[in-house]
Every structure is written in structure tokens, then in C-alpha cells.
Amino acid sequence: MPIEHNQKVVVIGLGYIGLPTAALIARSGMSVLGIDVSPHVVDTVNSGKVHIEEVDLDGLVQGVVARGTLRASLSVEPADVFVIAVPTPVSEDHAPDISYILAAARTIAPVLAAGNVVILESTSPVGTTEAVRDELQRLRPDLRMPGAVANGADVSIAYCPERVLPGRILIELVNNDRCIGGITPRCARKALTFYRRFVRGECITTNARAAEMVKLVENSYRDVNIAFANELSVIADGMGIDVWEVIRLANRHPRVNILQPGPGVGGHCIAVDPWFIVHGDPVNSRIIRTAREVNLAKTDYVVEQASRLIDDHPGALVACLGLAFKPNIDDFRESPALEVAHRLAKRYGPRINLVEPYAMDMPAEFAGTGAQLIDIDAAIEQCAVFVVLVDHDVFKSVPMDERADKVVYDTRGMWPDQPARTNGAAVELRRVV
Q1: Which of 92, 107, 288, 314 has the most CB atoms around it within 10 Å of its CB?
Q2: Is residue 187 flagged as an active site residue?
Q3: Long-range pairs for 373-380 at CB < 8 Å and ≥24 separation?
């Protein structure tokens, strides 16, 4: 595949990863067509606007759309490179669902041509890249697919997962190292040539199955370490110990780095990807499964502890601070904060007030509960009980004199100076400020 300035690229899926990726590729000078199933998303992008909140993304999209290097459509067109960035959810029994990926493969199959490169970026269970190859081979028997023929292939297929932090996606897509796994070494080299156009980090090649596992391992590692912190917080609560102080002091050891606990684990990656490993080898993935169970149980624990606090203050209005899965973003996917707030709203109805600066409207989950969406100033004026679920910067900025009279259940350790501050311990929850 020659390196051409006017190379055409199709990105399937214009979500939290697909749209920033498409915009960065377009900025490098390539001609990019973004494909999405949502007419609203397509119209929004074509108008030079964005449908997701991400630092500097709006300006980047506006610029590349104005220059004509990025456009969006509901229909696929021929291209040199196809990048698949669609969701990979899990079912209720935690089995991975790759139906969107295979649907994307079926979408590009009619326009696929010899010399094309197909790159899967969606987080996937091991073997998914080969499944894409097999689906393309089934639909296009006229093309020789990699690994299925003895001598060469017409199409190159590779896997290259993103590894980015919401709020820093554009920076990290460019600067982070990339792991590029080809079905064959030749496939990996073709994909490497493409990524070198817009990635400054080191691009390291391997095989597709190893690259798929790398992505799952990265997020499972994080999940296991968060589970340790969450389990520690519950143990400390039962003993009447301030878990935040314990972690702060323990981390002074030169070889200890305990993460911060919270109401669970959220986001489409860390809360989901470990299940892909468990599903692939349920017998041997004991620690990974247990970590998932610990983090899910922490959300249940927070709901019950918050309920005890609310029951101890009959009639008091409650402010649930934050619904996103992490601070300073508008991403609510798999958010434990949203889960806690939703369950409290179903239990206490109009006593519950939601404070989420990154939500323009009440999330659909809360319809019929009676809960209200208010800002932090209204919460300070009206609510006696605060349940801290997300440590957004705007919440951190509330000074002591505005919250000294509040009863607080702080799942994030956001306000260490709060009088009679609670970290979830039952003994603390009964204390009234």
C-alpha cells in the first residue's frame, strides 16, 4: 500500500473513539468518511459540530469539516483503509457481543477491493479479528484473505486497540504507544504504515490475537487494582477507620500504590472488558472474575449505606452529586454513580435531586421517579443530605462554609475537611452534622 497524501479512509462508528480518530486522521491530510447509523450524528458532524463532550474535539471537527477532509454519511464508499470503531457490549450473562463488529464487516464487504487495509479498533474478545476475516471471506470469495491462502493476500487485516483517557482522548490518540496486531506480519506492517501518519507514540507490531489480549489485560489490570481499593474501603468502614487516610499513608511505602475507591467501576472499558477474558477461559480467570464481582458489589453496598443515611433523616432533601463514570466528562456508560442515583430515586422519589453539570437533560432512566435535575447552587440551598458519587471539579470548589451544615456520604474522599465526614462506615453514617 503506497503512502499517499490523498489516501481515502472510512471510519465505521462515530462515537467516543471513532469521531476523534476520524478527525485526527483527517487533520493529517487524508480524506476521511465517517459512517454512523444515526442520522443525527451524521448531520451533526457534517455541520462541523460534535455530539459528544471531549476537550478540543469541537474545534478540530469544525476545522477538518471546513477544509473538506472529513465528512459523514449513512452509506459506505470505496476507500484505501477501513477502520472499525463500533461498540462491543456484553449480554446480561456477561458474554461478549461482537454483532456490531460483524455488521460493520458486512457493511464494508461490497466496496472492499484488492490492496485495501481493514483495521479493527473495537475492544474485542480474542479471535474477533479472525472472525472479521472469515466474514469478509464468506462475502467476498473473489478476494484472497490473509491467513486463508498460502501465498500472499489481496486484503490486509489487523487489530489496533485504542488506549485513551476520556478528557484527554485527542492527546493520547496521538502520543500514546500503539499495539498493532496483524493476522499476518505483512498485515501488521500495512497497518503500521497507516498509523505512522498521525501517531507520534511508538507503534509496536505483533499478531492479532496477542493485540486483542493486550487490550483486555490492560483494563483487567485496572479493574483488579480498583477492586482491591473498593474491598479495602468496605473493610475499613466496618472497622470505623478512615480508608482515605489508610491509603494515603500506605502509599508512602516506595513499592505501594493503592488506587482510590469509589462507588464501583464504570465506563465502557474497565467495567466490561474483563468479562471477555472470563468468558474466554472461565476456569482459570478466578482473580479477574472476583474483581468484577467485588466492584459490582461495591455499588450495591453504596446504595444500602446511602439509604441508611437517608432513612436517618426523614423528609430531608438529598443531592446526588454526579452521574458520569468519572470526573469532568459527560460519559455515563456503565456508570456506578448513575446506577446508585437511579436506585435511590426509585426508592425515595422526589426527595432525590441529581446534580450533574455535564447533563443537559434528565437521563431517561429517571423518568417517572420524581427526581429533579438541579445545579450545585440549588443543591446547597435546598438539600440537607449530600451523596458524593463523582468528584467533578465544580463540586471540589465548594468551600467549607457552604457545606458545613450538610450530612455527607462521600464515596470519593472529595472533601477531607468535611465535619463528621463519612466514608461509608455505619458508625459514621448515624452522625448528624
Answers
A1: 288
A2: no
A3: 374/319, 376/321, 378/353, 379/319, 379/321, 379/353, 379/355
